[in-house]
Specification:
By secondary structure, the protein is of the alpha/beta class. Helix content is 29%, strand content 25%. It has a single domain (2-155), classed as P-loop containing nucleotide triphosphate hydrolases (Rossmann fold, 3-Layer(aba) Sandwich). The protein is built from 6 helices and 7 strands; from the N terminus they run βαβαββαβαββαα. The structure holds adenosine-5'-triphosphate (ATP) and magnesium ion. Adenosine-5'-triphosphate binds next to helix 1 and helix 2.
Length: 156
């Protein structure tokens, strides 16, 4: 289950379309090397979820909240980036489990380190760098099986 991207714009479009895969309460762990396009994907996803404003938050925070406007029942997008997290203790201090809410979606860049907090019920999005601009965006995880039909639509 992989979707090809040939540009940053295409990755953003893939993120935007991925909103159709999501349901309230979902956790998405995003992985891929530095500069793969994780934040680009989230920017598109935010648009797909109808984010119109940027929530104000201190620049040093690792989690940002965005209010969403969509018909999917997703009211908040939590966007975390754990790149600078040094240890599992720091991850625990972030209380990421609180990001799992009935009316929210949590998307976590460099999320593998936090995987034990969320258990198996997550979507994993992995961005592979193929060349300068080419990427492959894969979806896996236990939740992906439940969303197979929506993911199949997202792939085409
Ligand atoms: N197909 C592509 N998809 C996404 N980004 C691309 C692509 N081709 C080139 N780029 C460039 O790669 C960079 C991706 O940056 P972005 O911040 O989204 O990556 P990231 O994975 O979030 O990085 P970090 O690990 O630092 O958080 C941008 O400069 C973008 O223009
Ligand atoms: Mg990033």
């Amino acid at each position: 289950m992989k979707r090809a991207s040939a540009s940053a714009t295409a990755t953003e479009a893939a993120g935007q379309a991925f909103a159709d895969v999501l349901a309230p309460g979902d956790v998405v762990l995003l992985s891929g090397p530095l500069g793969a396009g994780k934040t680009t994907f989230v920017r598109g996803l935010a648009r797909g979820l109808g984010v119109v404003e940027r929530a104000t938050s201190p620049t040093f925070t690792m989690v940002r909240q965005h209010r969403c406007h969509n018909a999917r029942g997703i009211e908040t997008l939590h966007h975390a980036d754990l790149y600078r997290v040094g240890s599992i203790d720091e991850v625990l201090d972030l209380a990421l489990g609180e990001l799992v809410e009935e009316q929210s979606v949590a998307v976590i860049e460099w999320g593998e380190i936090a995987a034990p907090i969320f258990g198996v019920d997550v979507l994993r999005v992995t961005i592979e760098v193929i060349s300068d601009e080419a990427r492959r965006i894969g979806v896996s995880g236990a939740l992906a099986a439940d969303r197979a039909a929506a993911i199949a639509r997202w792939l085409t």
